[in-house]
Amino acid sequence: MRILKTTPEFKPSEVVVAEELIDSYLDDAAASGYSILIAESDSVLTGYICYGQTPLTEGTWDIYWMAVAQEKRGQGIGGTLLKKAEEKIEEAGGRLAFIETSSLPSYENTRRFYLGQGYETLVLIPDFYSPGDGKLIMQKRLRPDS
Ligand SMILES: CC(C)(COP(=O)(O)OP(=O)(O)OC[C@H]1O[C@@H](n2cnc3c(N)ncnc32)[C@H](O)[C@@H]1OP(=O)(O)O)[C@@H](O)C(=O)NCCC(=O)NCCS
Question: Does residue 6 have its Cβ closer than 6 Å to ligand 1?
Fold first, then answer.
């Protein structure tokens, strides 16, 4: 929660939803449909990623949320978390990973990060979240033949 609350990109209403996903996972991981991986440095949590299989699909997974503590960004923690999640998704038979993110200028770093991690932008829905704030749907094929 410390990380989520101090991530300037996130609105308070988004932090509430991110917390709900974490609570649901902590209550009953198997039933929640979510998986969470964390990164630690000297026993301090430095980042996390929350992902899960997209209901009613075969082998399609969503990366629902991820964040790295602001003072720890740019050190490869986010990339490591995402790669680990992708490995686990592949082990579970996943083919496609999807990420939804914002078109706002404040998410430029986030979009560059995902592009650098091999995700491509499939869709831009203008004004989706609010006027001027569009939704980007980004995808990565985890296996070339998938
Ligand atoms: C997006 C986010 C998770 C990335 O995490 P991160 O730990 O900063 O990511 P990495 O360090 O792996 O990669 C970020 C950049 O640092 C570079 N980098 C990687 N290892 C590095 C290292 N050891 N030293 C310096 N730079 C490094 C990467 O090349 C990458 O460069 P890019 O900006 O050209 O893509 C993080 O910035 C974040 O929490 N953002 C706010 C929340 C958010 O937008 N979450 C996603 C919601 S959809």
Answer: no
With contact defined as beta carbons under 8 Å apart, do 106 and 52 qualify? no
Select from 50, 68, 108 the residue to mutate for testing ligand 1; criterion: most ligand atoms less than 8 Å from CB.
68
Sign of the alpha-carbon torsion through 82, 87, 89, 94: positive
Atom of ligand 1 nearest to the CA of 113: 35
Residue with the smallest CA separation from ligand 1 atom 14 is 74
CA of 64 to the centre of ligand 1 (A): 17
In order, the DSSP letters of 124-142 are EEEEEEETTEEEEEEEEES
pLDDT in tens, 116-126: 999 999 999 99
* Ligand 1 pocket check for 118: Cβ under 6 Å: no
In a domain, 93, yes or no: yes
CATH number where 28 lies: 3.40.630.30
Residue 117 CB–ligand 1 contact under 6 Å: no
How many domains, in total, are found in the chain?
Answer: 1
Instruction: Tell whether the model's pLDDT for residue 146 goes beyond 80.
Output: no
- Per-residue pLDDT at 48: 98
